[in-house]
Amino acid sequence: MASYFIIRGPCRLEWGSRVDVEVNGGRPDGTSLVVPTGRSYLVRVEGGSIEGNCSLHPVSSEVYESYRSASSKASEYGRRILIVGPSDTGKSTLASFTVNMGGGSLLTVDLGQNELYAPGFEALLLEPGFYVPGSVRGEVRRCFVGSFTPSRAPLEYLGCAGRLASHANDRLVVDTDGWVSRWEGLLSKASLAAVVGADVVVGVGLDRIDIEALEASTGLPVLSLPPLARGVTKSRDERRTHRDRLIAKRLQGSRMYSVSVDDLIVIGLPVFHGKPLDRDGLEALGVRGSLYAETHGGTLVIVSRYPPPRQLGATWLKPGWERGLLAAVDCGEGVQEVALIDSINYRQRRIKLLSPCMPKMLWVGRVRVSIDSYV
Q: Does domain 253-373 have CATH number 2.40.30?
């Protein structure tokens, strides 16, 4: 007779060779499994017992079978499955079940909690095999958005999703973020369905009116499911801690580099694009305490300790505005790696950044983290 459990990391699970263990709808290789910090898995055990240092929280068979049933039902509607719903409703667990049971590629566009690569990126796992969130094996392609939410970078969000989906297998499961607020969030997910070529949308924990709005805006069948995870939510601090842990993991082995903006391609930086202005001219305009200023395409950008006069209509950046900006670098192989901006020397036109390499190309994002946590 089978037993069912929820196990929460960090811990290690072990079992004998004759014990039948299924985790999130799939069978692990070998006779052990590590559960990462901040992750929970659903486990089915038959023919013996499991050991290790994990705490086992018994659940009914209905809990486990609800995920299996939802995964099977979604797969009946098409080959490209988009999973949509609020945070902490079980989307990632459902994506794990769906991939483990039916195969295919896995695309995550959850910018704040991307476990396939790092927050701020979207990522595609081409051949997951056995997959559980937090444990990645196989080739991962990624695309830098530079934000932790699609609302701050909507074009990059959709552009990355479309490019990554074009490299996926015929069968694709898309795990999304929890931004489904009316109406911007739902319209974002409807646009996402179009760019990834979705055949069906699975709405987890959505109201009837949200389901109807998705059906109308996508023209696709929308499978409505109740929240698959109940009573399990993450606080804002827990999400931030998990996000920082994921970024730190990718920054292991990185070091500080000083790069000249004239020696590489820089995208997303609001300075070093136009003609620099001299300090005397800035003071004549009433600008005090300036470190740097330039004009580009009719826009005046000023880095100064004090705000410039309003009538200038300038973009004002305070000194140190760049510290901790999330970034991506190309180390010369066309693959984006995560990096963090430390500081800018305006006189020498150099950027100091924490990076895995001396970059050939630099993308600068729109969100910051505490760089002191990584140095």
A: yes
